Amino acid sequence: MNPSTDRIEKQILLKAPRSRVWRALSDAEEFGKWFGVNLTGQQFVAGQSTQGHITYPGYEHLLMNVQVERVEPEHHLSFRWHPAAIDITIDYTPEPTTLVEFDLTEVESGTLLRVVESGFDQLPIGRREEAFRLNDGGWGQQMVNIERYVGAS
C-alpha cells in the first residue's frame, strides 16, 4: 500500500478551545453548518448512520451518508463513507468505504485538528484517482471552513 495514494492527511491549528472544536465536529447540526450538509435534528452516534443533503451550491441534489465508527469525546470522531459519490446514476453501496478520522489535540495556542481519510486503494480502479483528487482538495477547503466557523462562534 502506497501511503501517497491510500490516505489523505490534513491538519490545522485552530485558535479555539478543544471543547469548542469538539462541538463543531461532534454535534451533527454544527458539523453540517461548516461542512455544507443539512444534518438538522441528527446526532453522531457510534454504530449509527447519519445522512443529509449537501448544501454546497450545485450539489444540493446529493445525499451524504456516513456510518459513524467511533466517538471519543473531545478526542476522536470517525466515520465511513463513499468518497466522491457525486453521480446520482451510480449505486455506490457495493463499493468499499473510506475511513475519515478527526483527532483533536489541545496545544498552548488552541487545538490541533488532524483529519485522515484512508482506504482509497480499495476503491474500484476507475474511481480511485478521481475520488482521491476530489477529496484531497475538499479536505483542504474544509480545514478553512472549520477555522472560520470556530473563529466566528
UniProtKB/TrEMBL annotation:
It comes from the Bacteria. One of its GO terms (biological process) is methylation. Keywords: Methyltransferase, Transferase. Gene3D superfamilies: 3.30.530.20. The keyword Transferase applies. Residues 15-150 form the Activator of Hsp90 ATPase homologue 1/2-like C-terminal domain. GO terms for molecular function: methyltransferase activity. It holds the Pfam family AHSA1. Belongs to the AHA1 family. This is Vanillate O-demethylase oxidoreductase VanB.
